[in-house]
Design brief:
Number of helices: 4
CATH class: Alpha Beta
Distance between the termini: 37 Å
Strand order of the largest sheet: 1-2-5
Helix content: 10-25%
Structural class: alpha/beta
Oligomer: single chain
Order of helices and strands: EHEEEHHHE
Number of domains: 1
Strand content: 15-25%
Shape: elongated
Radius of gyration: 17 Å
Length: about 110
């Protein structure tokens, strides 16, 4: 192999949907996950936050304003209140996706 060339032999390349498929639907939603997978992603990356009462929800920001129109911090809001704004739980996302999907989270 000449200098500067790279081999992909032995490497597994994967397409990962960022925040599900944020370019196709509202980020970190079930619709975004479905859209990313339908567009050909091998897996999805989502952001997970803990609510005040210990629930795990898909949300990038620490507060509710940008993507839900709600107010307050997720870690200071109950799961029920966050869910009422349409924010999916991690459990919902895992149960509604195909079993062969690769997941990444931060």
């Amino acid at each position: 192999m000449a200098h500067g060339e790279r081999s992909t032999r032995g490497c597994l390349l994967q397409v990962i949907g960022h925040r599900g498929g944020a370019a196709l639907a509202l980020e970190n939603t079930l619709a975004a996950i479905d859209a990313g997978l339908d567009a050909g992603a091998d897996g999805v990356e989502v952001d997970v936050r803990r609510t005040a009462d210990g629930g795990l929800v898909l949300m990038h920001d620490p507060d509710l304003a940008r993507t839900t129109g709600g107010t307050g911090r997720i870690d200071e809001t109950t799961l029920e209140a966050v869910r009422s704004l349409g924010v999916p739980t991690l459990e919902e996302a895992l149960h509604t996706s195909p079993p062969n999907v690769c997941w990444w989270s931060r």
